[in-house]
Amino acid sequence: MGAAPPAEAVEALEKRFGTVTHDLLSDRRGSRAWKIEAPGATLALKANAPEDDGARDKAVEMEQEDRHLQALADSAAIRPSYRVDAGAWGGGRWLAVEWVDGSQLWRALAPTREDTGNTTAHRALLLRIAQTWAARLAPMHAAGWTHADVQPTNTLVDPDGAAHAIDYALACGPDTTRLPYRGALTHTTAPEIANAILSTADDVHVQAKPPADIWGLGASLFWCWTGHRPGIYKDNTQRVDKLRALAEGNLHALQDVQPWPFPALEELVKACLAPDPDQRPTAAEVAAWSR
User: Fold this and answer.
1) Are residues 56 and 164 in the same domain?
2) Most-buried pick from 5, 76, 122, 149 (CB within 10 A)?
3) Helices and strands in the chain, H and E counts
4) 280: domain CATH number?
């Protein structure tokens, strides 16, 4: 059955929704997540794992995500209903949000990676994911925020093929009382972020800007469509060297690794991966992409 959710979280949610049941979804890197079902509600619940290394930072990060969600809702960048509840428990912090019924991007795009994937339906799915994903980011960018962790595991694709962004813990906005941002998943780190990380001390905050989200979107599409991460390096390469490869633009050529030709998507991905942030399309432009 795995670890049970914090009793404080269960008590708070049962006061609102009635008796809940829970299913542990993940337990890694100092945090846990559960699917919570209650009468008329399905939620995702996260909490730090206090016995793990780095648990204190995870608790602070979870409190930070709660602040971000409230600020994003106040600025109409996300639905106010997405954040359900949050609080402290004996081991740290917990956060409950609306459940998103969807598959992670890698799994959703598995059929498109096959040699037989070049179908009208798969081409439409790839473009719909790109467009709807960008449409989720556009209000954040308009409100002065950057998601700052755009990557395959933070993107769920619903049964209608629409993408949903989740996990706002590392988002960069006007909030100055935060943990220093030092990038997120290496493989989807924009070159300007990689360069800033390499050229500053570990405790220096790097403020991610909207073009970095667009690079992450393009890198994620590249990765989950081709099966290859954009950067040219080996799995066991040190992170600093991976970041250096990304900062220097040492990337696979899309035409060398793509499973089949798709000019409209190729053009979009290449535009998102432009080395110069100012040359990348905006989220609104990607959302309207129809070439």
Assistant:
1) no
2) 149
3) 10, 8
4) 1.10.510.10
